[in-house]
Amino acid sequence: MIKKEIRSDYIPRNDAEFNFWQTNLIDTLEPNLIIWGILASDFATLKSYQATWLNVYEDNHSSTASKEQAKNNARDIYEKQLCRFVSQWLTFNCMLPRRERERLGLTTKN
């Protein structure tokens, strides 16, 4: 079975760029949850996936095949959660200013 790679256009492909992007996203969201009407429990779930990603990403500098696979798996799962979160809470959120959406590197709707 061929695994088809599906990535949103706003998620960087390179791991280092992805890590920078997701950190910026999480750091920007956290103080704005109430302002943007985002459920804290959904954000907490996303942060748990982030923690898993950060653990394997930071541990991957002495790369072995198993560490690389763990990193790739954690990223795949985290990306899916990020896409769901962005779709549910950010894409059509009228409380999220366009300039913030652009600063977060999200696709903006005209």
Q: Could you describe the 3D structure shown?
A:
The chain is elongated and about 45 Å long. It is mainly alpha-helical and 110 residues long. α2 (40-58) packs antiparallel against α3 (65-90). It contains four helices and no strands. It has helices at 15-29, 40-58, 65-90, 98-103.
Order of secondary-structure elements = HHHH
Structural class based on helices, strands and sheet pairing: mainly alpha
C-alpha-based Rg, rounded: 15 Å
Judging from the principal axes of the Cα atoms, what is the shape? elongated
Residue-averaged pLDDT: 88
Unreliable residue stretches: 1-6
In this structure, how is the largest beta sheet organized?
A: none
Strand content: under 5%
Distance between the termini: 38 Å
Number of strands: 0
Q: What share of residues is helical?
A: 55-70%
Counting DSSP H or I runs of 4 or more residues, the number of helices is 4
